[in-house]
RNA sequence: GGAGAGGUGUCUGAGUGGUCGAAAGAGCACGCCUGGAAAGUGUGUAUACGCCAAAAGUGUAUCGAGGGUUCGAAUCCCUCCCUCUCCGCCA
């Protein structure tokens, strides 16, 4: 959520930035400024009447104590009008604030100046490409075929137990999952992220804090009996640890990592592109999260990107880094890098990580602040990234590393899997 | 799930209708003291919004949340949420 004061002071710039995100309802900006004017006027009136009423109440108290009952009664008779006025203005203020808020949450975050204009994934900017794409023989299999051949993943069994998009990992497939999770966590800890293990369900306030709500309500599983949402990413519980928190400046940056399953309804996704592990309703992911000083957040974003790239390099996966264009970015992000690995059997790029700087968009909702050099509270910046999401990594590993002998496990993983081949 | 107790500032904790944004203590910050530290001692120490060009200042709101009674609510009433204790159930 953008800060009204910022919108008010930077109207032109806000409009210009929203255009980069292809945001059409630009009239909202002026509506918000207008409502904020009304809000301030109303509050000033309300404050003034309240001040009068408070003063009178104090006076009545004094008079009563001194036995001047008649004078007290005289003042009392005047309070009725104030009370009415206070009630009326209070209701007005609440109404205006609600209206303002309803419009404010419709505005996406402003994209960073480096964000390319564009509408679709085709307009994303390829920042770099790294690693060589393996040349596979024409007999090469897609990961869902390999998963069946080596008895690693049972998609049908998942359908029986739960439904499509909830696979059962078996044998070395299950062990590979655990190996990747442990490897990713260990690497994150080496990079200074302290591990947390967090709830997989969150309340409404948390969903709102990281801006899944109200924006993406339909994308989350909802446990109606208890009013809880299954997390779509560990970003939600981890970032919400800092809701309503005021940090000391020297506590920044705060760095956390955590592994969780992630649950996504993925309503409206069908077809060949969702086959196998390409798109699931439940998957595992290691997330890295930072709360940063605003002056440092872009430097930190690069560090996070470098960290994710290091993982991909160590796993020997060809990858590229995209700077998402305005139209493809998330609602709350100011700048997002997507990392994609090259799936050699499918001959396409698969998104395995998304690293974003939210600037103050989340912290404004979370009321996540720090005390700056002047001793004043200031909104912190929040960042997060996948490091990494498992299924597409598994898909790429299986496909790219297939040989006649079997599937070769990358060296860095062997201490975790305790086997070198899937055969 | 049943019964009971309770939610006050960074923390502990006082406050049952006005002098309460809130005692006291702890913590923290700065100063004095000290060779240095501890002890001692002094001062300060919530957040948000508004007014003001801004600082200073000042107004308003906030004692779990929302509503009500009252000239006046942390304090009384109602609803909701949460926590704790006991019983039941249970990985």
For this structure, what is the CATH homologous superfamily of the largest domain? Bira Bifunctional Protein, Domain 2
Q: Quickly count the domains.
A: 2
The CATH architecture classification of the largest domain is 2-Layer Sandwich
Q: What's the level 1 CATH class of the largest domain?
A: Alpha Beta
Number of E-state strands: 18
Q: What composes the largest sheet?
A: 8 strands, mixed
What form results from the Cα inertia axes? elongated
Mean pLDDT reading: 92
Class by SSE composition: alpha+beta
Low-confidence stretches: none
The tally of helices reads 13
Helical content stands at 40-55%
Beta content comes to 15-25%
Give the CATH topology of the largest domain. BirA Bifunctional Protein, domain 2
Please give the alpha-carbon distance between the first and last residues.
51 Å
Radius of gyration: 27 Å
Largest sheet strand order: 1-11-12-13-16-10-9-4
Notes on the structure:
With 423 residues, the protein is an alpha+beta fold. It folds into 2 domains: 4-104, Serine-tRNA synthetase, tRNA binding domain (Helix Hairpins, Orthogonal Bundle), CATH 1.10.287; 121-422, Bira Bifunctional Protein, Domain 2 (BirA Bifunctional Protein, domain 2), CATH 3.30.930.10. The protein has helices spanning 4-9, 11-20, 27-65, 69-104, 143-149, 155-161, 171-190, 204-209, 235-240, 297-314, 361-366, 390-400, 414-417, and strands at residues 125-130, 153-154, 168-169, 194-195, 201-202, 222-223, 228-230, 246-248, 254-263, 282-292, 319-323, 335-343, 348-357, 369-371, 377-379, 381-389, 407-408, 421-422. It has an 8-stranded mixed sheet with strand order 1-11-12-13-16-10-9-4. It has a 3-stranded antiparallel sheet with strand order 5-7-6. A 3-stranded mixed sheet has the order 8-14-15, with no helix packed on it. Helix 3 (27-65) packs antiparallel against helix 4 and helix 5 (143-149) crosses helix 12. The longest helix has 39 residues, at 27-65. The protein binds one RNA strand of 91 nucleotides through residues 39-40, 43-44, 46-48, 50-51, 53-54, 56-62, 64-65, 72-73, 75-80, 82-83, 246, 367, 377.
